[in-house]
Specification:
This protein is α/β, with parallel strands linked by helices. It is built from 12 helices and 15 strands. α6 links the parallel β4 and β5. The longest helix has 32 residues.
């Protein structure tokens, strides 16, 4: 329940009677572990985003873990511990955690203060003969410039992955983000574009990687693999034998049937949800465009506007603490821009990592940035209130 003093919250529920009835259907069935609803949701999700395969997991974090893990078990040129992966310095923690857990060499690259995605010149200069993976994080709904990224890695043996957990429904040149790289991940946490409360999805067009993830998601066993598959070849006809046959070092990342049923209802509403977010963004950009005190995120492609980020102009003399205190006082919730400069966190002491050149823009975001929420309904009143408060500070 919202604090009554909160007038502009970060996140609100997208559920209504449809989701309640979907959960009641699952309860009536008596089957709570993943089953027909999860499978149907995966199929519809893959079709919606223009991909061959979708695999649901219990969180976007797990989706990232599956994406990275799968690369270690493909038959040809598997990724190995110590291989280099390039990441933007601003993202959520679980973009990075699987990289450490699988022993990869992480290279942090600076971001562009305008788009909040890769600084493309820094990205190009960071690539070495050791680079095996680039993870493009589409931050806060904003696509990366994939045309330039693909030109940079053309003729190079580099895998392009997408962390699209904050950018469901964004488009780049007519293609849905999350379906552009070899694999792409999504989150359906409470505050995201659609919500199964907890949940994630990984997309790919690669059948082998899909089969590997099916096994890794469920203990590394063969039970959920098709009879003919890219992991074991052909499964035995003996159901008893295959029920507990383990072939990969897997996890239990399975979603509940409840989340699959909710996802089906939510997916039907996604287009409407995003239309409202873009309508809200039109108001926000009109008010804050060319503001000399606060810099807003520059849209690239067609953003799905996860939230509205603002960076205080370092030369403005405004202190972020004062700004945030004022917003809190009037009931506007704020958060840092994702995790800010992630390389400043103590967790990286456990990583094999390096920083390419400097992370000056990530530091600016870290020190001067914040964001407010966007929602699936009209926020014109709240956005104008935000502008009035910040304009008063200026």
């Amino acid at each position: 329940m919202l604090n009554m003093k909160t007038k502009y919250p970060l996140a609100t529920s997208t559920w209504d009677q449809d989701e309640i009835e979907a959960m009641l259907d699952v309860i009536a069935s008596g089957n709570y572990t993943m089953g027909k609803y999860v499978q149907k949701y995966e199929e519809k999700f893959a079709a919606y985003f223009g991909s061959r395969y979708a695999i649901m997991s219990n969180s976007g974090s797990s989706a990232n873990l599956l994406m990275i893990a799968a690369l270690f078990f493909k038959k040809n040129n598997p990724i190995k511990r110590g291989d280099e992966v390039i990441v933007p310095a601003v993202s959520w923690s679980t973009t990075y955690m699987p990289l450490q857990q699988y022993g990869l060499k992480v290279k942090f690259v600076d971001i562009d203060c305008k788009t909040l995605n890769f600084d493309l010149e820094q990205l190009e200069s960071a690539i070495s003969d050791k680079t095996k993976i680039i993870i493009a994080v589409n931050l806060l709904g904003n696509p990366n410039d994939f045309e330039i990224i693909k030109k940079i890695i053309k003729l190079k043996d580099i895998i392009l992955l997408e962390d699209n957990c904050e950018s469901m429904g964004a488009q780049y040149r007519g293609k849905m983000t999350g379906s552009i790289g070899l694999m792409g991940t999504f989150s359906t946490f409470f505050s995201h574009h659609l919500s199964t409360m907890e949940g994630g999805m990984t997309l790919t067009n690669n059948e082998e990687l899909y089969h590997i993830m099916l096994s890794l998601r469920s203990h590394g066993w063969t039970r959920h693999l098709p009879v003919r598959n890219k992991v074991t070849g052909i499964k035995s006809n003996d159901e008893f034998e295959e029920s507990y046959k383990f072939v990969l070092p897997g996890y239990n990342l399975r979603p509940l049937e409840l989340t699959g049923a909710i996802g089906l209802k939510q997916l039907n509403k996604l287009q409407s949800f995003i239309a409202f977010r873009r309508s809200n963004a039109a108001i926000f950009t009109e008010l804050f465009n060319n503001n000399s005190y606060f810099f807003m995120q520059k849209e690239l492609g067609v953003s799905s506007w996860f939230g509205f980020s603002l960076i205080i102009n370092p030369e403005s003399g405004l202190e972020r603490t004062l700004v945030l205190e004022k917003l809190k006082k009037v009931g506007i919730e704020t958060r840092p821009i994702v995790a800010g400069n992630f390389a400043k966190n103590c967790a990286v002491n456990y990583f094999n990592y390096e920083i390419h050149n400097s992370l000056k823009n990530a530091d600016i975001v870290d020190k001067f940035g914040f964001f407010v929420g966007n929602h699936h309904f009209d926020l014109s009143e709240q956005i104008h209130m935000l502008y009035k408060v910040l304009h008063g500070l200026c």
